[in-house]
Sequence to fold (307 residues):
Amino acid sequence: MPIVSVQDVTKTYASGFQALKGVNLEIDEGEILALLGPNGAGKTTLISSICGITRPSSGRILVGGHDVVTQYRQARRLIGLVPQELNLEPFAPVGPGVAFSRGLFGLRRDPARVEAVLRQLSLWEKRNARMRELSGGMKRRVLIAKALAHEPRVLFLDEPTAGVDVELRRDMWKVVAELKRQGVTIILTTHYIEEAEAIADRIGVIADGQILLVEEKAQLMARMGRKNLSVHLREPVAAIPAALAGYELELCNGGRTLIYSYDTKSDGTGITRLLSDLQAAGLSLRDLETRQSSLEDIFVDLVKERP
Fold:
C-alpha cells in the first residue's frame, strides 16, 4: 500500500482558476520522488493539498491510510513540510525553535532527538544563535530541522535549495540520502533538474495542473533519451549541403560543427551512412563526439508537447 495516495484530485480557486485537474499519484514508502514542472504548473498546490494546507475541490488524498480532510490530525502527524519561503521568527534561538515545532504535534520534549537533528544538519554549533543572525542557507537548514523534529514518515521539500550555495546544496543532498536510508519518504520539487537526476528514484512531471508522467528515472531516460553526435569539421561551412538534408542536421559553432540526433532504441543509428555521405559531400572531419540527452532535455520536450 502506498504511503501517499492522491485520487482524482481537483482544485479550483474562487477566481475560477483550476490549479489541479484530476491528479492521480501514488508514492511508495521510502522512495524519493522528484516533482518537476514549470512555474504555475500546480506543484505547490498539490503539495499544499496533500499537507492539508489547501482543501481540494474534489477527490481524495490519503497519507498513511488517513484521509487528509476527515482525519487531518492523523495524516498531518506523518508529514514534515519544508516550504519555499523563509518564514522564521527573527529573534527566536535555533534550538528552542526546533524543539517548539515538535511540541506543535503534541509530542513530549526530547532534547536528544532535537540535538540529533541539529547535528545532522550541521546546526548544533548554531543552536543558541537567533534566526536573524543566520545566512539564507542556514535558515533553509533550520526549516528542514523544524520539519524533522516530530519524526515524520513523509517529508516534502518545496524548492529546498533555492538561494543555497553549492557547498550547502551538496551537504543538503547528503542529508536527504541519509533520510532515505532511514526509511523516510521524500517528495521534492526543484528547478535544479540535475539534482533530481542525481538523487530521485522516480520522476514526476506536472504541467497545467495535470500529471504528464510518473516513471522510474532510469526507465524514463532509457525510453525517452536520445543521443547527439557532434561532427566537428576541419573547415567551416556556410550551409548544410543539400545532399545531407534528409538527416535533419543542425549547424552550429560558426559552421564548424554539425549535430545529428538519433534514437538509441532504434534498429540502426544511421551514423555509418551519415559519415559516408559526409565524405561524399566533400566535408573533412576533425573529430566526433556523442552526448546522451539529460533529464532536462526530456523535461523540456515533454512540456513543449503540451497542446
